[in-house]
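Table S2 (text version). Query chain:
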Amino acid sequence: MLDVKNITKIFGGLTALDDVSFSIRKREITGIIGPNGAGKTTLFNIITGIYTQSAGTIYFNNKNITGYPPEKLAGLGLVRTFQNIELFGQMSVQENVMVGLHTRSRSGIISCAFKLPGHVKEERDVRGKALHWLEFCGLSDFSGLEAANLPFGKGRMLEIARALALQPDIILMDEPAAGLNNRETNHLADIIRKIRDSGVTVVLVEHDMELIMDICDSIVVLDLGKKLAEGTPRQIQENPAVIAAYLGSD
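Corresponding structure-token output:
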């Protein structure tokens, strides 16, 4: 579904990524892990159009998407969440999800301004779909609350709900468990499995190894900008090079 081929990224004299290649299969959960400074977030930023790679090519559903901006990628079905929560704080929880849904709306300016029947119906549908994704993520009781007043863990879930409202084929999550307690992390794991089971492919950068080993179908390991290993959770756990990278053994 997603093919990353020979990606290199150089910042000045620093090589952040060095000839990284791997493939993501449909309807699987893939984890991208590695020590701090391994290049994980840089890789995410390249895949999602925030950075431009120095070399290499990216294919999504057999289409060359190299250099596509984030909004064009979202239209193709590739979306992401961020390590730092990015919400519209003064809007309600429901309205935050509606923002994602409006990217797929068909009403024009005149229709919206004059509240034409087509726009009114579409607006009603958008509100209903927003409530669906809030319920999917366990947020239906918070729909009218200002997003700025959400507890941190619920904010994480809202960002995921908003991304899902775009009806993606693949969702990339950058450290979704950061700052969550054990109960919230367990809920996140359940949500990620639900997303996968609904037919959406999931890729996540994450430092929580217990979460990664519990939910991932496959794992890619980066170290110092290079791909160190790739395989199932069990294969990664038993890989001597991965153990050395994390524990500093010879």
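Notes on Table S2: The chain has two domains: 2-85+168-247, 88-149. The first strand starts at residue 2 and ends at 11.
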